[in-house]
Amino acid sequence: MTLIATQSLTKTYGGRVTALADLTVAVEPGIIGLVGANGAGKSTLIKILLGLIAPTSGQVSVLGIDPTADPAAVRNRVGYMPEHDCLPPDLSAAELVTHLGRMSGLPRTAARERASEALRHVGLYEERYRPVGGYSTGMKQRVKLAQALVHDPDLLLLDEPTNGLDPAGRDAMLALVHRIGTEFGISVLVCSHLLGEVERICDTLIAIDGGRLLRADNISAMTSATDVLAVEVSEGTEELAARLAELKLPVARDGRLLLVPLADDGTYDLILGAVAELDLPLHRLGQRRHRVAELFATRELTHA
After folding, report:
1. Residue (of 225, 231, 236, 238) closest to 285 by Cα position
2. Does the model's pTM come out above 0.85?
3. Do the domain assignments include residue 304?
4. Inter-residue contact 63 to 140 (CB < 8 Å)
5. What residue intervals traverse the membrane (predicted)?
């Protein structure tokens, strides 16, 4: 079954502002990244997928259900993690997640059990009886993820799940989302403006800009190998760059990487010979791959 499908989906406000324009896309189950700059139409699309607003025209289905015609049926099978902090500070995480489980239709006992299980999955089991108002930003993000999981959905919609987190917190959240998508059998749509995060954990990417589809494709297809070799040594980068230049190889720098155009297999031999000659510890040698951010910068995302 197709996870999400839209056909000529359009949403305008007041007949003047177009949030989505003729969006047609079909997505299979997995971990999907929905990317675009602020104002690209990501939040509008999520609201339509949840049945919170109706499109102006076009068709949409989520798990085979029309969210406009039957929003309750969609929300029974979809978990939603909002971007902004919307947690009542005086409730404990256990109380909050249990309450939202009850709102999802779970019986009281089942809601309590599912709440404890969801909080354990996100690493908050030991802290579950503390008031949410005393939680750190990272803990609050995990509570929002737990409430999205409590009713055992088939699909999670996560709106900027790493919002407000420090680098360590972002890494932990991304690892948790990836685990849910790969081990729990739950499809995940991650809405983000941080392309590097999406590239790290997602199988598929949907890129929109100005409400229009730029590209929908597998991440692997977007990050194909280039004709440039990336060379990294643990030490002696300057020495190696100088030696490669002496060998008439064009060299560019990208942080700790040396980038050398791949002319033929002889390029590998020249680089390996220089590394051995200088007795340097080789950390990496291989073809550099495209990054999603680079495709965005050059608008190559529009090349399906």
Report:
1. 231
2. no
3. no
4. no
5. none
